[in-house]
Amino acid sequence: MENKELQKIWKNLDVKTNQKSKDELNLLLISKTRQTINKFTIVIVTSIIVSVGLMIWLIITSVNRQDDLIYLINNLTLGILTAISFISGLFSWYKLQNYKYSQPLSNWLETRIKLLTKWLTGRFSKSYIYLIPFLYLLTVLSIHVYFENKSFIEVLNTEESIIGLIVGIPIGLFVSYYVVLKIRKYQLHNLEFLKNLQGRLYKLDE
Amino acid sequence: MALLKNEFLEILTNYQGILYKVSLVYFKSKTDREDNFQEIVYQLWKSYPGLKNKSSIGSWIYKVSINTSISRIKKQRRIEYKENIPELPDNSDIIEEISKNESLQLLINAIYNLDEIDKSIMLMYLEEKNYNEIAEIIGISKSNVGVRINRAKKILKQNFEHLNHGK
Known about the structure:
The complex is a heterodimer.
Chain A: H1 5-11, H2 22-64, H3 69-97, H4 105-121, H5 128-148, H6 152-156, H7 159-202
Helix pairs in contact in A: 2-3, 3-5, 4-7, 5-7
Chain B: H1 2-26, H2 30-47, H3 57-76, H4 102-112, H5 116-126, H6 131-138, H7 142-166
């Protein structure tokens, strides 16, 4: 088979591709943009509703329980951690959505690998291990103590409350860890794929 | 903004063949190809305001198309390093006529056997891009491009001939 023969065969494709008109391409772009904006809106709006809802809860309950110092510390800690998580979550989402596709494949792979490596193996990558139970415990205590109509210390000294917390917390924690570990596993798989691709790309340059 | 969009759509209309072909070598099913085409259009539009060198529009389109396609393969978890000859793609869309051209059909099937990087490099080789352009788009050295093209060409020819004899 001649060297140029493959190119000659490939040229047959040029006459066979159905070209879209300018209007069709415009409609396609509009529909994709709407779809992406909708996805973005859902994530942002859900995060805002959850975070703002929790903040409102923390403010109202704190105002009603001004005399319970431990309860106030519990709510304040929860509020600060929620605000930090919300802001860093939004920032990460923005970064993920805005990395540049218009660079050479090798640079694109490098940027993507750096980003994922930082998330998955960086300094704060394992923070979820202690952050999830801590946030979960603070949230459960904030709600439980408030509806018990007792002080924070009194609730923790009640046998039923302790049993309830011991039974309820592991279930919630199991669900939370399961979801987070699933996402991490998926992202680690992606990272592995990208590293493999990068390795193959540079193999001949070394 | 309207002027910018009009200019962008004009370019897209003239260069859409690249989008079709990149989608074709990376995705076998019609739905995946259409989704990928749409995603590339969106990513091109997003990066269009930052395009400084309007003389290298083709390279820019290749870069965005290849990176978007690889990103979508990853997302869809369809990373397969096939050892067997794949089945023929469905031929109900842009390549509906391909089924009438056996050689072209065999060539496309042979391309499916290449890995993700070699698919792009071979596509550009078949499109008669020079080594410098391919090196710039992929971001590797010219000599690396040469070695890869020769190696991929050999695999492609073997696959092509294997498919041709087996038909």
